[in-house]
Amino acid sequence: MEAIQSWVSEHKLASIGGLWASAIGASLAYSRAKSPLKPSLRLIHARMHAQALTLAVLSGAAVYHYYEQRSNEPRRN
Asked: pTM higher than 0.70, yes or no?
């Protein structure tokens, strides 16, 4: 688990881009199997799902970074 965390911390943009691309692919595959939408609407929905997932991951990373920085600060008495 530490190896994954260190790789992600060194390659933040690549990991976010990979997550975004995989979310688009998964959403396209799901919508193709489940809904009779036109391809243009499927692409729009897939992009929206991927953006929402990316926003959630970025928010989680920001919270993690905040608490990590806060725990590393020396305590004031």
From this structure: no
